[in-house]
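Weekly modeling sync, notes
Attendees: S.R. (lead), two postdocs, one rotation student

Agenda item 3: backlog of single-chain predictions. S.R. asked that every request posted to the team notebook include the full sequence so nobody has to chase files. The rotation student volunteered to paste the first one in as an example of the format we agreed on. Action items at the bottom.

Example entry:
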Amino acid sequence: MANLKPSIPKGTRDFSPEVVAKRNFIFDTMRAVFTKFGFQPIETPAMENLETLTGKYGDEGDQLIFKILNSGDFLAKADPEKLQAGDSRRLTPEIAEKALRYDLTVPFARYVVMHQHEITFPFKRFQIQPVWRADRPQKGRYREFYQCDADIVGSESLLNEAEFILIYDEVLSRLGLKEFTIRVNNRKILSGIAELTGKPDKMMDLTIAIDKLDKIGIGGVEKELLQRGFEEADLDKIKPFLNLGGTNPEKIRHLKESLASSETGLKGIEELETVFTYLSRFNTNRAVVELDITLARGLNYYTGAILEVRSDEVKMGSIGGGGRYDDLTGMFGMNGLTGVGISFGADRIYDVMEELKLFPPRTTLGTTLLITNFDRETEMFALDLLQTLRHHHVAVELYPSPVKLQKQFKYADARNIPYVLVIGPEELQSGQLTLKHMKSGEQEKITAEALPSVFSAPSS
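Predicted structure, as returned to the notebook:
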C-alpha cells in the first residue's frame, strides 16, 4: 500500500518559527495594553460541554460548532429511530456531549458563573486562546484561529465601552496600523427600527439580515428581510437607516427624529451619546470612530453597544469586534450581571501586518551568535564560552558536530543568524577568536573575555 501524502485539515495551518515569532509580537503587544488598562489573564479548556455552547450564537452559529463524538461506541446509546431516520440534528446530543469552543465569550460567562464566589467585581479579564468554527475557509477566515478577548462583567458604566475603543486604538497603533475605523452602533437602536415596522419580535431577523450587508448588498438584504417575514411597507421604513450618512452628530440627530416613538431606540441613542462624550475627553492615536447603523453583529447575546474594527489600508473583513451583553450569564443561572467585551482577530491582524510589512525586523530575531565546531579540542573550549555568553543573556548556540565550515556558515545563513564565531586551532593558540558579521562579511579578532560586551542584551 502506497504511503499517503501527509496533510492537515482545511482551514488550519502549520506555523514556522518566523511566523510564531511574529504572532507572539502581536500577542505580547495586546497583553501589554490589556494589563495597562487593568485586565487580568484567564484560560479555559479547548472543549466545553455541547449544551454550554448551543443556543448562544443563533441557528447559523450553532451549525458552525465542531462537535466531538463520545468516546468508545458512540452509537451504542443512540435512539434507533433517530438513527434510522438520519435526523442528525436530534441525534447529535446523544452521540456528542462535548464540542470545541466557538468563541471565548460564552466560555468566559460559564467561568464567571462557576467561579462567582472567587471573583472580585467588576471583573476585568483578558484571554488569548484558539477557537474553532466549521466555516468555509477563505482569505482571512480559518477554521482554527486565535481570539484575543477582553471583557468586563459586573459594571453598567458606559465608560467601559469608551475604554475598549481606546484599547483598540492603542493596540492597533502600537502594531503600526495607520488607518483603521472603529464602527459603533447599539442593538437598542436596531430594536427601535424593528418597533418602527410594527414587528418588534423580528429584531433578530432584522439584525441577521443587516449583518450581511457587506456581503450581499442592500438588494440582498431587502430580499432576505422579505424572506424573514417583513413586507414591502416595512422595507420603506428600514431603507433610510441603511443609507444614513453624515457626521456622527448629524446621524444622532436624524435617529432621534426617526425613532422618536420608540423608547428602546431612544435609550440606545442616549447610550451612544454617553460613549461619545467619554471619548471626547480622551485623545485617540489613529482610530476613526464612526456611528454606523448598518453594523449589526449577528450574535444573539449582544443587547447594547456593538463595535467592529476594520483596516482601511487592506481589503479584509473585520479585525475586531464586540459589544455589551446584559443577560449572557443568565443562561447559566446567574441573573442581573451585565458585561461588555471585545475580541481581536489575531490571524486577520497578522495578514494585514504582513501585507503592509509592519513587523519590525527584531520580531524574527532568534539566535544572535553561532559558534563553529572545528574538532574535539575547540568544542571543549567553546562549551565554556557558550555557558559564559548565555549567562550574559546572549542568544547563542554551538554547532553540534565538527563538519566543514562552509556547511556551518550555510546553516547560519539559513537561520538568519547575524554573527558567527570561528574557533579553530589557530584561534585557540593565539587567543584571538574570529567574529564574522554575516550580512556585511566583515571579520574582526576578539578575545573570549571581550566577547560578552559585544552583545548587549537585557538582564533577566
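Discussion: group reviewed the output briefly. The mean pLDDT is 90.
Action items: rotation student to repeat for the remaining queue; S.R. to check formatting next week.
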